[in-house]
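Reference record
================
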Amino acid sequence: MEAISGKTVQNVFRTQDHRRECCSFGRRSTYPLFGSKLACAGISAMQLYTLRTHQISLGKRACVYCNAVQFVSAASAFEKVDFQKLQNGSDIRGVAVAGVEGEPVNLTEHVAEAIAAAFAAWLCDRKKSDGSRPLRVSIGHDSRISAQTLQDAVSRGLAGAGFDVIQYGLASTPAMFNSTLTEDEDVFCPVDGSIMITASHLPYNRNGLKFFTNAGGLGKADIKDILERAAIIYDNFSDDALKETELAASAAVRKADYMNIYTANLVEAVRRAAGNIEKPLEGFHIVVDAGNGAGGFFMGKVLEPLGAVTSGSQFLEPDGLFPNHIPNPEDKAAMRAITQAVLENKADLGIIFDTDVDRSAAVDSSGREFNRNRLIALMSAIVLEEHPGTTIVTDSVTSDGLTAFIENKLGGKHHRFKRGYKNVIDEAIRLNFVGEESHLAIETSGHGALKENHWLDDGAYLMVKVLNKLASARVSGSGCGSKVLTDMVDGLEEAEVAVELRLKIDQNHADLKGGSFRGYGEAVLKHLENRVASDSKLKKAPVNYEGVRVSGHGGWFLLRLSLHDPVLPLNIEAPSLEEAVKLGLAVSAAVKEFAALDTSALDKFVRGL
């Protein structure tokens, strides 16, 4: 038989049980690779393997179809796309808006549609319809300017696979996961899967997708699988098939306001913590900075029903160009903005979210920030009151002072793991599985997940825990205002100097000799480790899960390899600039022979520039 591309192949879908419906519940998929027990006479073994690898596996619950499928060659009108480059750990990220020099668009409508269809395939391999309805997936998005276009494309991808599609519109990432758990048919819940369209705090031209089932967020291996399927689906798109998906979407898409359900649960949590008082925050002045992302709901749908005064809240309107500041609790300009709002309005507390509300931070009435190590300290204090002795899992760049605070002041255990919110969450889940109790997994970035909240990194829920403390402290008479929170982190030792420097690996440098940046970076780390072992003034951390962590000169440094990029981030913390420079010089001396490593940032730091 001639090659598949450009040829028409007769596909016969056979069933072993004519009485049961497939996952598309009577609505045939418009995609050529969707089906069960595919038998294609005359297709080569390799071609048949490729089809089987990327089709939806429906087992015995298949439908009977006999349809001619027009395969479109890779050299069709659709641009070539390297789908694997869209993977960003457990998320998908890409450029969705043209106009930035050097950043060509690679997350197009067709690409998003193919990815959604691939997620449907992935989901059908794991979930089967109960026969009463098709499988259904909810879609939400943040405030990015490409959000609506991608939402429509994702809807077509799902509908073309025979799924019911529930559009929530502007939503938060945590709400999308919750839609897989909520039982409320008025909003078509629970859904079988959920997709959030977001790129967190990245610039306006970027966008991406996050995926959930009721088991939580998908992992790296799942995303790799989905992108492999998507590449095959994309290569087999035809104009006729894409027109069919538009028709399918018009019939399958429904809209619902799930955010009302999600926020009502947050409000109820605060009331319950305060002894079922209707307005436990009455008299508190709390300002919100949403950074023009999706978090503006927190003021009107959470704080105000609880009785809080919210005047002075800012940047609540969704604006995907982010005209005021980056919606990022780690960003200095963003933290200055919420701090200024607190001080100017004489507020008791300030709350700031990232774009899709899976991260957050706070500011007390004096302008003291609760982010990074200080936010972890606060959340650890709250959780350890409820669960004495529990293990707090954090990422690798947390401070020595935080360890001392958690273990010596609070009586807990600090388990410092790897960077990456999914890594931290998965490690906490693993610890519980092997018998070590853990109730909090949290990164310095502001991603924080609690066992009581299904291990979901939810910035709004973190702030609800903070509000619970404010409300319950006033009810019990143990304190009033944000001083309650400030007192909870009393004793946290904080370094005078804390810097992060990025040492980039030049992948085109001859020193790599055709090897990978990862192998080169690991060689740098091994050499540094050997140098440290011969320096009596430095001590390598006895337990460390990422990079090389070393204490000395009253402080510490960590050099590690980035999870995704050809970069070695270097974190240094010390009680003075002099000690920090000494640590920097120790690193500089160890890595200077690696010619492909750009140490200019480190050089400037040690020279005081």
In short: The longest strand covers residues 497-505. The longest helix spans residues 459-476.
